[in-house]
Each structure stands twice: as structure tokens, then as C-alpha cells.
Amino acid sequence: MTVQAILNVKGSDVVSVLPDERVGAAVQTMMRHGIGAVLVRDPVGAVLGILSERDVMRGIARGGAACLGEAVETLATRDVVCCRPQDGIGHVMGLMTRGRFRHLPVMRDGALAGIVSIGDVVKHRLAEVENEARALREYVAAG
Ligand code: AMP
Predict the structure, then answer these.
(1) How far are the Cα atoms of 35, 41, 68, 87, 111 from residue 78, in angstroms, in the given order?
(2) Cα of 50 from ligand 1 centre, angstroms
(3) What pLDDT, on the 0 to 100 scale, is given for residue 60?
(4) At residue 71, what are phi and psi to the nearest 5 degrees?
(5) Number of helices (H) and strands (E), helices first, in the chain?
(6) CA of 59 to the centre of ligand 1 (A)
(7) Which superfamily does 3-142 belong to?
(8) Residues of 77-109 as b/e, b for ≥16 C-beta within 10 angstroms?
(9) What is the model's pLDDT at position 10?
(10) Does the pTM of the predicted model rise above 0.90?
(11) Are strands 103-108 and 111-117 parallel, antiparallel or unpaired?
(12) What stretches in the chain show pLDDT beneath 70?
């Protein structure tokens, strides 16, 4: 199964914020959408970074709730690791495990094509494993 299969189900929408938006506003955006990270993009859509709940926790641990009034770009991670629609689920699981992050934007020919989270990946992998198990049971029963 590929990243494209996940995007076929969840679509290509990516919730994004501007770099000069307040961290507190970005947190509200995450809560409203029920997500744990937002992409930071400039007004023409170029990806500048990613802000996850982990970054907000780090900001609060360092300087308290005042970080909610800072600009998103001060807490966001700048070097964003991305994947491609044709990448396999095993590959993206490896990227997330090695990088210790749970979100991966998807780039197709240099343009943003969506985002996958560890929740999306686990859900699809589980469905894949269940299908494999069912196919094996049917094969054994037929023999
Ligand atoms: P997460 O586990 O995704 O909530 O993020 C954990 C840390 O990794 C945070 O500092 C994020 O800004 C950062 N992060 C999340 N996704 C990525 C990514 N695709 N590339 C680089 N850093 C990321």
C-alpha cells in the first residue's frame, strides 16, 4: 500500500498557518480541526516549516504560556521531511520512527499534495494486515 492510497481516502487538504500568526491562534486552529500539527506556509503556499503540539509543549516548558503570544515561526521546525505519493507505508513508518515525528507532508512534483499522520498510517496498515489474515484464512479453508 502506498501514501497515495491514504490520500485517496482522506483527501489532500492540509491545514496551514502563516509564519507570523500567533502560536495561540495556531493551537486554536489545531483544536478546531482535531489535529496535532499545522504546516507553516508563506502567502503563496511555499512550505516554511511545521508546528506540532510537541513544539508548543517545548515552548511552554522553556518560557511558560508567554510563548502562545509569539509568532509561529519562532517555535516551528524549519527542515520539514516530506514523502511522495508513490512511497510505501513501510517507508513512511521508517521515516517517522527514525525522525521521531508523527506527521509527513506529501509532495508531488514539488507541490504539496497532502499530509499523512501516524494515525492514518496505522489505520491503513491495520486494514492491510486484516485483509492479509482474511485472505490466508480463506485460502486455508478452501484447501
Ligand atoms: P510530531 O511527533 O509530528 O508531533 O512532531 C515532533 C517534532 O517533530 C516537532 O518538533 C515537529 O515540529 C517535528 N516534525 C513533525 N513533523 C515533521 C516532519 N515531517 N519533518 C520534520 N520535523 C517534523
Answers:
(1) 19, 11, 18, 22, 17
(2) 7
(3) 98
(4) -75, 145
(5) 6, 5
(6) 14
(7) CBS-domain (3.10.580.10)
(8) beebeebbbebebeebeeebeeeebbbbbbbee
(9) 94
(10) yes
(11) antiparallel
(12) none
Q: Which of 100, 103, 117 to mutate to test the pocket of ligand 1 (most atoms within 8 A of CB)?
A: 103
pLDDT digits (tens, 9 = 90+) for 6-38: 999 999 999 999 999 999 999 999 999 999 999
- Residue 115: the pLDDT is 98
Q: Where are the domains of the chain?
A: 3-142
pLDDT of residue 126: 92
Grid cell of 30 as nine digits: 489545531
d(CA 55, CA 43): 22
CA 65 – CA 72 distance, rounded (Å): 14
